[in-house]
Amino acid sequence: MAKNKKQHIGLIFGGNSSEHDVSKRSAHNIFDAMDKDKYQVSLFLMTKSGYILGNKDSARVFNGEPEDEVAKEALDRLDQKNPLAPIINLSEVANIDVFFPIIHGNLGEDGTIQGLLRLLQKPYVGTGVLGSAMSFDKDITKKILQLAGVTTTRYEVVTPMTSEQFTYQQLSDELGETLFVKPANQGSSVGIHKVENEEDYREGIRDAFRYDSKVLVEEAIEGPEELEISVLGNHHPIVSKVGAIKVPKSDAFYTYDNKFVDASHVEFDVPVDIPASLSEEITKMGLATYQALGLKGMARIDYLVSQDGKPYVSEVNTLPGFTNISLYPQLFAASGISYTELIDRLIQLAIEEYERQSKILYDFKPLDPKEQVIDNKK
């Protein structure tokens, strides 16, 4: 790339999930933080129906025009018989240097958009297909972490095929009187229920099945707060200071409303004052989690801490929020990395990982003694 040439960034946001509007807010913050002397930015909005709009239409929505109206106009112009219609607009800008997907939840964090960008042979910010898919599925995440020796909460998996085999009494005998019911593949606390009796359990299961065909029933860790760290890097990641989220005692847990509707009663303690031994343990667990799941670029890792001070990895977010109240950038700001520098680093990490991946062979080739091995130091 020639010196002084701006890098062309494709910012993909929106998506077909409950976090659509959150993604739009994240995209605005990322766009505002980008150094425009370094970057030219093209916008690609994925509608709630899963169609990607072109830069001009995406910019109209980005600048405040009603999304439904713009999307209808844009989709009316598309040839719906073309099987590539949902993604055809990505072809309008052929010279994208790096894609920055910030689609939270379905299609964005589950490996789908990552697979598409890999097919397009473009660098992209964040974790690859497998790491994204494993981290998005809470059941698979827990299984991997258990194999890696990382402490996580005990749970059972309920599916439509097995739902009649489980009762609240059976599960509470195994996991404790207070249980959490949650969809395996969903974000932002959607479909999550805190249950303490059979009636609430059945209602929670019924609601969770609206969002996924696999549901986790998890033990409750009744600690004072939820702790979080941010991780940045590829093969040698760095970890931020530890932050805390404190929700009102009147709320059972950190709900969707707490996160995105009214956060006025939620306290963010960044960085949080905790014993050094707990901070060290959380950092060690975070790095082990990042490595076990094969994560790249970035992740936010959430922890529950019991009353006796034992931490449990609760959830892994491979495309965390970048809104005004999102903890991922806040934690790194508290650790000495500004929002703008964070964006720069993520883009550079995307390029480094793409270059590393490009050296991997997928067809047989005799070994040349002079051939340089893949560099995993970055």
From TrEMBL:
EC number: 6.3.2.4
Pathway the protein takes part in: Cell wall biogenesis; peptidoglycan biosynthesis; Glycan biosynthesis
Cofactor note: Binds 2 magnesium or manganese ions per subunit.
Subcellular location: Cytoplasm
SUPFAM superfamilies: Glutathione synthetase ATP-binding domain-like, PreATP-grasp domain
GO molecular function: ATP binding; D-alanine-D-alanine ligase activity; metal ion binding
Binding site for Mg(2+) 2: E315, N317
HAMAP family: Dala_Dala_lig
Protein name: D-alanine--D-alanine ligase
Organism: Lentilactobacillus kisonensis F0435
Lineage start: Bacteria, Bacillati, Bacillota, Bacilli, Lactobacillales
